[in-house]
Amino acid sequence: MQEDMLQGTLDVLVLKTLALGPAHGHTIAHAIERRSEDVLQVEHGSLYPALHRLEDRGWIASFWGTSENNRKARYYRLTPKGRRQLEQQTNRWDEIVRAVNRILRPATD
Amino acid sequence: MRGRRFFRRRFWDAERARELDAYLAQEIDDNLARGMTTEQARTAAYRKLGNPTRIREEIYTMNSVGALESIWQDLRYGARLLRRNPTFAIVAVLTLALGTGANTAIFQLVNAVRLRSLPVDHPEQLVEIRIVKAPHGRTGQFNGRWPMLSYPLYQKIREEQQVFTDIVAWGSTTFDLSQGGEVRPAEALWVSGNFFPSLGVRPAAGRLLSPADDIKGCGVPGVVLGYPFWQREFGGDPAVVGRSIVLDGHRLDIVGIASSTFFGVDVGRAFDVAVPICARAMFTPNSGGLDRPDLWFLGALGRLKPGVTVAQAGAHLAGLSKGIQAATVSPRYSATDAQDYLEMQLGTLPAAGGISGLRRTYGDSLDVLLAVTGLVLLIACANLANLMLARATAREREVAVRLAIGASRRRIVRQMLSESLLIAALGGAGGLLVAQWFSRFLVAFLSRGGGSPLFVDEALDWRVFLFTAGIAVAACLIFGLTPAIRATGVAPGAAMKTGGRGTTEGGTRFGVRRALVVLQVAVSLVLVVGALLFARTLLNLSRMDPGFRQDGLLTAAFDLKKAGIEPAARAAFDDRLVERLRSIPGVTTVARAFTTPVGENFWNERLLIGGVAQKDAVNINSVGPDYFRALDIPLVAGRDFDARDTPQSPRVAIVTESFAKQYFPGGRVIGQTFQFDAAPGEARPSFEIVGVAADTKYTDLREPFRPLVYEAARQEKEPGSGLRVVIRAQTALPAVSAAVTRAVQEISPSIAIQYRTIGDLVDESLLRERLMATLSGFFGVLAVLIATIGLYGVMSYMVERRRVEIGVRMALGADRAAVVRLIVREAGALLAAGLAIGLVASIFAGRTAATFLYGLTPRDPSTLAIAAAALALVSLTASWIPARRASRLAPTAALREE
User: How many CB pairs under 8 A join A and B?
Assistant: First the structure.
């Protein structure tokens, strides 16, 4: 269960990253790390099964392209289906955060 | 999604590997830019990514459908195992293939002949209409394969009945496609006008016959071709519709082709051409036309009105019977015949599956053969079980090791199962081949009977095959699963401790194997006894003295319709023809004959002696001078027919010894007279007996000798349009028939000729016996072979298991003979048990086969003894081989293993 939750989290982070534009694995990993201000330290390798899974579900698509320093790299972009998914997942995440917050910090009268 | 990637998982793996490499390259570049050394940059990059191989593996498993993957693995492993042990594999697959294949083929034939419905509209509504009760038999002329009704009877039934929506009639005949010379026969149907429309047959081209085509006095009608004939004869060319075809010298227009699925209503026969019944007047102008109520040549099928049962329809017809028959008594009947006719009763029989002479002749034989192949399958399954058990035992140690190092029990069982499945699949595929080959062989075998080829739908029946293959797979699984589960149930430690000798056999498992061998021996004995009974029946029949010598005898039937010979000139013409044939080199004797023994024609009449009607009809043949010499039938007393016997001289006859014994017991026979019964007002000439001939069989070799009268062919007042002769020759018969054709063509090119050798006629009449003997013999040998392999396997295994014991015995002074005795005694016990059960079973099974036997009873003691002895000999030889191996064992070697 815990694993599932983490996995789901990683998925949504990947989708969010790709919402800004196509990127390859290396970029995605570093982007997540950087934008969480290094709080979310993921082993970059675990990103790839997640990418594979997302592509399987049709939420993202991939193509080979040339990276900023002129290397061949596999790029990923968000599909329309993935965009809808991102919205849903974001809403759901907000709900959970609100719910957890209500429990952890009850409003003081 | 997954499915797609499953089949391309190698590609995806390479793809991911490239992607990971790209990541590493990028990260290393970044690290270098941060000022690390090359070595540091690499290490840091790998640390950041994690283990690439593990990542790839994770993705690879995501791509594979787990169960499928391991099943594939198991199958490959199973195939490897089978390749490593080819004897086991070959024996298992072969027995399975033969068992399932033979079963499928026979069942297919049973299905085609017996179970399948006619390919017409609503076959379930069809019933056959015929005379169901004729206490004193029917009298008259019988034509075709299904002579159940006459045309007047059919007409009258159609008029009076109220239970059928319609009744169709058909008859069978053959037409000659050639125009003179040797006959090229076509299977033909006479059909009533409503035949095709009522049955719901659709044309493949053109149109089919309709009631408008079948009108009395129709002259030259149209003809419909059967689909196979159309393909064979015209290459399926649709343009033949509108062209013509010559049948028996008459040119008829082809109006259409019947649909490819419709072969007629006689299962086992396919029609070539169909003409309306009214055409009989044109084809056989001399037979007295359609109005003869004593001309039996039609079969009839009725379509029941909704809600009427077969029984109700039968009762309805039975009620109408008397009136219908009273209106159709033949003027040719004598008073007795007419009385008999009125006593007959019409009725119905279910006919959704059509009617079939094939079914009548072979139905029961097919049942017996089905039982035989079923038993073979049983033996094959038992053998398979035995092999599987042996295999599981041999692998006990391997299984124990694998369990010990952590393999799951389920995984091992599944792996062993996949091996069984592989055998089942290979055996099934082999069975498919065997079935097709065997089914073709069967049809070819049965087609040898009587001229026209047999038509059986040879298309493989998938349902049948799936059923048989299902049995085989089930057998493999059950017998593969049980030992697998047991083997994995043993504590690994215990199995490994005992080395290669196994622990679990402790009684039960080995007991199962013994029981299987006993079963195999018992069933084999039943099959061998059956095979011997059928073989000896065939032998008895072919060795029996039929009263004549069959080799070197040819019959030739001449059709003189087109030769234009005046009836008055016929006697002289016949003499000249016989004389001409006699002059052919190599021909020793030529004689006229209405029919020959085991021939296709028969003729009988009611006998009057001293004006008193005798109880039974007596068989008759009409022969020319030299007939007895040609067939090598001894004349016991009196003279042969000769030139003294003419149409003008007093009628003479030669009778057989049985005739003399039955009608003139003790007294003088030569010079006595008798008459035949005839219609009121007709002459009843008196025949004087001038000779007595030895007995011969008439139409059937299996019948005892019956009284037989020979009339003089030369005295016939109304010669028919045909002439048949028997020819005895010293040279090869095909050469003789060629010479005869040439000689006859010289006389008149329009004479049609048909040849049969008496040898062929005799062979054909024994076809059923030959079929039973051949097939049961084949399966008997197969069964013994499989059972022997089973016994050999068990004995080999036992020797292996008792190596140490035998070593100890030999070390303690047992000699080789004693060891051999030990093993063979054990085999003997199994054999004896099997034989005892088998003998009892044989006696029971024999009862069902009693009707197929000739000259011996199903309990024939010598047959039982020979079968048991043969089986014992083969089995003991098979067990002697492992016994000898055991006796060659070096005691020290065996003991060292302990």
Answer: 63
